């Protein structure tokens, strides 16, 4: 799905003109982008959470040459789908109490510490084994 597809969907379902639909979609995406650039978290109930996380610099390895290289510190965007979205993707009935589930997920997110080892790059050795 592209941004143009989203604009078309808004146009068809809401009844705004295509120009108005495009302006609304652009405004939503601009707002999301600005929020993430500030480092703020975005929580969309029933959909999921977007969060910018800081990754430290670390040493990596070029898989072709085996040479060590420094991977610079950077910010990465993570997305964690809500239980409601997970259920929908798996063809399951949605959880009964959305508000209660959202509250539990938010509480879990507040206590969840990011561990860079969760997102390690896998490097193949010369013999082809990880």
Structure characterization notes:
The chain is α+β, with helices and mostly antiparallel strands and 130 residues long. It is built from 4 helices and 5 strands, in the order H-H-E-E-E-E-E-H-H. The protein has helices at residues 3-14, 18-37, 83-89, 98-111; strands at 42-44, 48-55, 58-61, 68-71, 74-81. The strands form 2 sheets. The chain has a 3-stranded antiparallel β-sheet. A two-stranded antiparallel sheet has the order 3-4. The protein is extended.
Please give the structural blueprint.
Elements: H1 3-14, H2 18-37, E1 42-44, E2 48-55, E3 58-61, E4 68-71, E5 74-81, H3 83-89, H4 98-111
Antiparallel strand pairs: 1-2, 2-5, 3-4
Helix pairs in contact: 1-2
How would you sum up the major sheet?
A: 3 strands, antiparallel
Tell me how many strands there are.
5
The CATH architecture name of the domain at 1-38 reads Irregular
Structural class by sheet pairing and helices? alpha+beta
Could you state the order of secondary-structure elements as H and E?
HHEEEEEHH
Beta-strand content: 15-25%
CATH topology of the domain at 1-38: HU Protein, Chain A
Helix content: 40-55%
**Biggest sheet: strand arrangement:** 1-2-5
Mean of pLDDT: 83
Distance between the termini: 34 Å
How many helices? The count is 4
Query: Can you tell me the CATH class of the domain at 1-38?
Result: Few Secondary Structures
Short descriptors:
5 strands, three-stranded antiparallel sheet, disordered C terminus, 4 helices, two-stranded antiparallel sheet, HU Protein, Chain A, alpha+beta, 130 residues
